[in-house]
Amino acid sequence: MNFPILSSILIVPTLGVLLILFCKPEQKTAIRVISVISTGITLLLAIFLMIAYDRQAGGYQFMEFIPWIPQWGINYILAVDGLSIPLVFLNAIAIFTGVLASWYIEDRTKEFYALLIFLATGVFGVFMTQDLFFFAIFYEVAVLPMYLLIAIWGSGKNREYAAFKLTLMLFFGSAFVMGGILYLYKAAGLNTFNLMELKRLAQYPKEVQKILFLLFFIGFGSIVPSFPMHTWSPEGHACAPTAVSMLHAGVLMKLGGYGLLRIAIPLLPSGLHDWALLMMALSMCNIVYGAFTAIAQDDMKFMVGFSSVSHMGMVLFGISTMTLTGINGAAFQMFAHGLVTALYFSSIGVMYNKTHTRMISELGGIANVMPRAAFFFAIAGMAGLGLPGFAPFVAELMVFIAGVSKYPIYGIIAVISVVVTAFYIIRCIQRTYFGETNPRWKDMKDATNFEVVPLIILVIALFVFGMYPRLVLDLMQMETKNIIAKLALM
Amino acid sequence: MIIYILPEILTFLMAVFFLLSAFKKISMETLHKTGMFFSIINILIILFTINLNGLFFYGTYKIDFFSQSIKFILAVGLFFIIFMADKRIENTIKKNYGEFLFFLFSSNLGMMMLSSALEFITLFLSLELSSYTMFVLVGFLKNKKISAEAGIKYLFIGAVASALTLYGYSIIFSYFGDTSLQAMRIGSMFMMKDVILYIGFIFFLTAFFFKLAILPFSFWAPDVYQGASTNVTAYIATVSKVAGVAVLLRIFVYFFPIFADQEKILILISILTMTFGNLVAVQQKELKRLLAYSSIAQAGYMLVGLVMFNKSGMSSTLFYVTAYLVMNFTVFLVIDQVEKEKGSTELTALKGLSQRAPLLSLSLLLALLSLGGVPPFVGFTGKWFIFSSAINKGYLTLVLIAFLNSVISVYYYLLVARQAYLFMPDEKEKMKVTVPVRVYSYFSIVFIIVMGFYPAPLLNWAEKAIRYLVG
Fold this sequence. Notes:
The complex is a heterodimer of chains A (490) and B (471).
Chain A: H1 5-22, H2 28-52, E1 61-69, E2 74-80, H3 84-101, H4 109-128, H5 132-141, H6 145-153, H7 159-188, H8 195-201, H9 206-223, H10 232-239, H11 242-252, H12 254-267, H13 269-295, H14 300-321, H15 324-355, H16 366-369, H17 371-384, H18 391-406, H19 408-433, H20 449-467, H21 470-489
Antiparallel strand pairs in A: 1-2
Helix pairs in contact in A: 1-2, 1-4, 2-3, 2-4, 3-4, 3-11, 3-15, 3-20, 4-5, 4-6, 5-7, 6-7, 7-9, 7-10, 9-12, 9-13, 10-11, 10-14, 11-15, 12-13, 12-15, 12-21, 13-14, 13-19, 14-15, 14-18, 14-19, 15-17, 15-18, 15-20, 15-21, 17-19, 17-20, 18-19, 18-20
Chain B: H1 6-21, H2 28-48, E1 54-56, E2 61-63, H3 65-84, H4 91-95, H5 97-116, H6 120-138, H7 145-176, H8 181-190, H9 195-204, H10 206-212, H11 221-227, H12 230-237, H13 239-254, H14 256-261, H15 263-281, H16 287-306, H17 311-342, H18 353-356, H19 358-371, H20 378-392, H21 396-422, H22 435-453, H23 456-470
Antiparallel strand pairs in B: 1-2
C-alpha cells in the first residue's frame, strides 16, 4: 500500500492539537512552534499533492478506503480530484499563514491554537472525504470551534452576539444539509454513503431532486453565504481575531460552494435546473447589495466582510449559469477569493495590532508611518477589485463572460458592481493610508519582518495563480467537465 | 438456574446488607467503599452471565443477551452514581448513607428485573419497585423544603401514571385473557383491533412514558431534577432512562402490530416532546432545571428511534441511550463537583471553570456538545443512526424538524459552556479535583470522541442485543 498521504494531512494537525493539549499553558513558544511545524508539514503535503496529482489520468486519486460501519454503508474514504486539490492547498496555506499571523496572541494561547488547528483539520476533512457520513462530521467540525474562537479572542463589544449568530445560523444551515444527505442515502436505495458510488449509480426522480436540491441550497447557501442568510458573515468577520477571519472568509465560506459542486449538482442536476433562476436572483442580491453595503461601512473588516458577500455571490452566479465557463469561474473564484480575503484580513490585522482601531474615519495617513501594512492592504485591494495579473481577475472575467451570455441584463448589472467595488476599495485605501497623517498615529511602528512573512506568502500565491491560472484551472476543469456533462444530460 | 439470576440475587442481598447496616454505627466512608466494591462485583457477575439464555418461572422471566446487556449498563450506571456520592455529599444523606445505598440498590434491582420481565405482573411489580424507591430518594433531603416538595410531586404523578397503566392493562386483559407478554404477542397478531383496545394501549404506555419523561407525562421532571440531591438527579436522568428505554423496547417489540398502526401519533408525540423540551430549556437559569428540559427533549429523540419499529431504529436507540448515559452523567458529575464547592447550581456557578479546572470543563464542554448532537462526538453519531432509520421509512419532515431541534439545543448547551469558557473566575485558586473524578473525565472524553468517530463496536453490540430481543 502506498503512503497514506491524505490521512497524513488529517493526522498531522490532529497530532499537533494533541501535543498542544499536553503542553502547559505557560509554554507559549513551544505551543506556537508545534503549530507552525504541524501546519507547515501539512502545507508541504498539500503542495506535494498538487504536484504529484496525475493530470493526464484525472479523476479520483490517492484513494484510501477502509470499511467503517458496513451495515450502514459507511466507509472511510479519502480521495482527491481536480476540484478538491486546489481547495486543500488553499486551506493549508490559510492555516499556515493564520498560525503565523496570530503569533501575537498571549491570552490563552494554548486553547487558541488547539481550536484553530482543529478547525482547519475539519476543513481538510470536508475537502478530502468522499463519504457522506464523514462529510457531515467534518462539515460541522469546521463550524463548531468558531463560537469559542470568536467569543473569547475576538474584538469588539458585540463579539459574543456575533459568535452566537454565526454558530447558530451555520448550524441551522447544516441541519438542512444533514437532512438532505440522509435523504440522498435513502432515495438512492443503494445502502451506501459512498459518494463515488452514488454518483455512478444513483438515479433520483425529478420531484425528489427538486426537494433535495432546495434543501442543499438552503444548507450550503447559508455558509456561502447567500442572501438572505448572509447576515452572520460580516459581523462574524469583524469580531473574529485575524487568523479566524482569514480561515473563515478564506476557506470556511468555500465549504458551501464546494458542497454544491461536489454533492448537490452532480447528484441532482435537474434540481439545479429547477432552482437556477432563484439562485441567480439571490446571487444578484449578494453581488449588488453586498457591494453597496460595503460602501457604507466605516469598520474596515465590515467593509471586507460585505465585499466577501458580494464576491461569493459571483460563485453562485457562476454556478447558476450552468455553463462550463461559468462553473469554472465559480470554482476558481472560490480559490482566488480565499487568497485575497486572507491577505485582506492579515494586513488589516497587522495594522490593528498597533492602532487598535479599524475605523476608516479615525485612521488616515497610515502609509506614512506603516508603509508595509499599507502596501499589502493595497495589493489585496487591487487584487480584490479585479486588477489583471491577480487571480480574482481571471475568475471574475470567466463568471462575467458566462453570465452575460446566459442572462444578459443581470450579467451587465453584475459587471457594473465591479465599479462599485473599485470605488469603495480605492476610497478606503485613500482615506486610511494616504492623506495627512492623523497625529494620533505619529509614533506607530511599522510591521516587523516576522509579521510580514505570512503576507508575502499570500501575495506570492496570488500573483503566481494570477499570472498562470491554468495551474489551478486545468485541475478544476477535469471535474467541472463531468458536472457539465451531467447537467447537459438533463 | 441460580447462576442465571445470580446478579439479581446478589443485588438483593447487597440491598439487604445496606438496610441492616443502618442499625450499626458504620462510618459513611466504609459504606461508600463497600458500595463501590459491591457494584463492581455486580458488574463482573453480569459480565460472567452475559451469554446465558433461558426462560424461568413459568416463562415470566427471560435471560438473554439483551436483558444482560441492559443489566450491565444499569450496573455500570449504579457504580458511577455511588462513586459520585463521595464524602462531600449532603449531610442528610451522609448520616443515613446505609439507607441511601439500600434504596439505590433496590431501585437498581427493580430496573434489572424490568429488563427481563416477560409477564405483566412481573413487569408492573418491578416497575413499581424501581419507582417507589426513587420517590424516597428524591425526597431524601428531609430538611430541604424543595426536596420534600419534589418527592411528593414525583410520588403523586408517578402514582397516577401507574394507575392509568393498570387501567389500560385491565382493558387489554379483557381482550387477551392472559398476562404473559408472549401470549399477548401472538394474540395481537390475529386480533381484530378496535378503538377500545387502542385506548387501552395508550393508557398502558403512561407509566413508561412517565419514566422517560415523554410529553404529557413529563411535568414532574424540572421540579424533581431541581429538588433532589444531584446524585439522585443523575440517577434519574441516566440509569432510569436506560431502564425506561429497555422496557419500551420490549413492549414495542411484543405489541408491534398494535403500535405500528399508531405510528403517526407516536411520531407526533416525539416531535412535540423534543420541541417542547428544547424551547423551554432555552429559558432556564438553573442548571438542573435546564437539564431536566433537555432530558425531555432527548427522550423525544429516543422515541423517534423506538417508534420506527424496525431493528435499525431500535438498535440506534439502544446505542443512543447508552451514549446518553455517559454524556449526561459527565454533565451531572461536573455540576456536582461545582455544587459541592460553591453550594449553587445556578448557571453562573460554572463561571470561569475552564481556568480553575481545565479537565473538568473540557469534559463538560464535550459532553454538552455531544448532547447537542455536534460531530464528531458520540451524540451526533447516535442521532445520525436514529434519523437514518427514520428517513429509511421516508419521514423527511420529521428528520428536518429533529435536526432543527438540535440546533436549538446547541444554543442552550452553549449558554452553559459559555459560562465555563468565556468568563474569568472570581476565585484565584484552582479547584480541587479528586483522582477518581479525573479518571472518569478522561474516560468520558475518550469515550465521547472515539465512539463518535468509530461507533462500530458499540453499534455492533446494540444490534446483537436487539437481535436477541426480537428473537
